[in-house]
Amino acid sequence: MITEENKQKIMNAVRDILEAVGEDVNRPGLIETPKRVANMYEEMFAGLDSDAKQHLKLFDERSNDEMVIVRDIPFSSMCEHHLLPFVGKAHIAYIPSDNKIIGLSKFARIVDNFAKRPQVQERLTSDIADFLEENLSPKGVAVIVEAEHTCMNIRGAKASGSSTMTSALRGIMKKDARTRAEVLSLLQR
């Protein structure tokens, strides 16, 4: 959690930025902006202070070789290169082992935990896959993340409407060609 002292630092920095771009920090529309930005950063970076393991809830269930898929998990994150948001959906598949399954809602919490920190999409995708592989010990994991990046849409290339897709495959999802083809076809619908 961002301390009150650090919130004040953020507020001061936002005031400095507004002044540096030529704004009057005392005009009515901007008076509360530094505080709003500090509160937003506290929310957007909440993953820095939390451990995704808190969201693990495993159940004993006779597992088999059947794939479990959760699609369209919404997330928002902050690009660490420009401190602009990127927003999208994560798709996760895994094949349980050792008679252990995870509560499906936990996938959304795990995605959110990793997304709520300064991030790049490539690392976000790998972090989720690595975490699930390490903590579920499944036969395989696949994570696909699709997102639109504000830093690409409104600045630089100004490629509005473009999306970026990343994938991370672990275990049988990576090693076995048939399983890889199946999971990729199911996750990219």
TrEMBL record:
Similarity annotation: Belongs to the GTP cyclohydrolase I family.
Species the sequence originates in: Eubacterium coprostanoligenes
Catalyzed reactions per annotation: GTP + H2O = 7,8-dihydroneopterin 3'-triphosphate + formate + H(+)
Enzyme Commission number(s) from the entry: 3.5.4.16
Source superkingdom: Bacteria
Residues reported to bind Zn(2+): C79, H82, C151
Keyword check for Nucleus: no
Gene3D superfamilies given in the database record: 1.10.286.10, 3.30.1130.10
Protein name: GTP cyclohydrolase 1
